[in-house]
């Protein structure tokens, strides 16, 4: 199970990051996040991952469920839970990704994203 967040700024743009060389799906744009560890609540896993990947801190109670994807990836099955987040502390910085960008949800269609993310764009367009 993987949790990810669309950080939403005051203009209604969302943050995406580019997966670095050496990782599966390198070069694709994704929502910051990562795997939920055993015994961890999803919202706390998300707060941990966003601290590690972006250097921001957040209240796990303030993330809002947005959509999910269920997709077979090679020999594994991915359950991806996407949340939105509008309040956090700190300025996001690319600690793991090789680039960050803020885009309007409609602009996500033009980015190369993992297959599981593509159906999530429509949900974000409605919610943001
Ligand atoms: N973070 C994130 N992962 C995604 C998205 N879409 C998608 O298919 N994935 C997949 C890619 C990976 O197979 C998996 C996330 O694993 P990861 O390896 O990036 O996560 P992690 O940060 O826990 O990584 P690591 O410690 O194993 O390096 O979910 C997305 O939008 N965001």
UniProtKB/TrEMBL annotation:
<keyword id="KW-0460">Magnesium</keyword>
<dbReference type="InterPro" id="IPR015797">
    <property type="entry name" value="NUDIX_hydrolase-like_dom_sf"/>
</dbReference>
<dbReference type="GO" id="GO:0044716">
    <property type="term" value="F:8-oxo-GDP phosphatase activity"/>
</dbReference>
<dbReference type="GO" id="GO:0046872">
    <property type="term" value="F:metal ion binding"/>
</dbReference>
<feature type="domain" description="Nudix hydrolase">
    <location>
        <begin position="1"/>
        <end position="125"/>
    </location>
</feature>
<dbReference type="Pfam" id="PF00293">
    <property type="entry name" value="NUDIX"/>
</dbReference>
<dbReference type="GO" id="GO:0006281">
    <property type="term" value="P:DNA repair"/>
</dbReference>
<dbReference type="InterPro" id="IPR047127">
    <property type="entry name" value="MutT-like"/>
</dbReference>
<keyword id="KW-0515">Mutator protein</keyword>
<keyword id="KW-0234">DNA repair</keyword>
<keyword id="KW-0378">Hydrolase</keyword>
<keyword id="KW-0235">DNA replication</keyword>
<dbReference type="GO" id="GO:0035539">
    <property type="term" value="F:8-oxo-7,8-dihydrodeoxyguanosine triphosphate pyrophosphatase activity"/>
</dbReference>
<dbReference type="GO" id="GO:0008413">
    <property type="term" value="F:8-oxo-7,8-dihydroguanosine triphosphate pyrophosphatase activity"/>
</dbReference>
<keyword id="KW-0227">DNA damage</keyword>
<dbReference type="GO" id="GO:0006260">
    <property type="term" value="P:DNA replication"/>
</dbReference>
<comment type="similarity">
    <text>Belongs to the Nudix hydrolase family.</text>
</comment>
<keyword id="KW-0479">Metal-binding</keyword>
<dbReference type="InterPro" id="IPR020476">
    <property type="entry name" value="Nudix_hydrolase"/>
</dbReference>
<dbReference type="InterPro" id="IPR020084">
    <property type="entry name" value="NUDIX_hydrolase_CS"/>
</dbReference>
<protein>
    <recommendedName>
        <fullName>8-oxo-dGTP diphosphatase</fullName>
        <ecNumber>3.6.1.55</ecNumber>
    </recommendedName>
</protein>
<dbReference type="GO" id="GO:0044715">
    <property type="term" value="F:8-oxo-dGDP phosphatase activity"/>
</dbReference>
<dbReference type="InterPro" id="IPR000086">
    <property type="entry name" value="NUDIX_hydrolase_dom"/>
</dbReference>
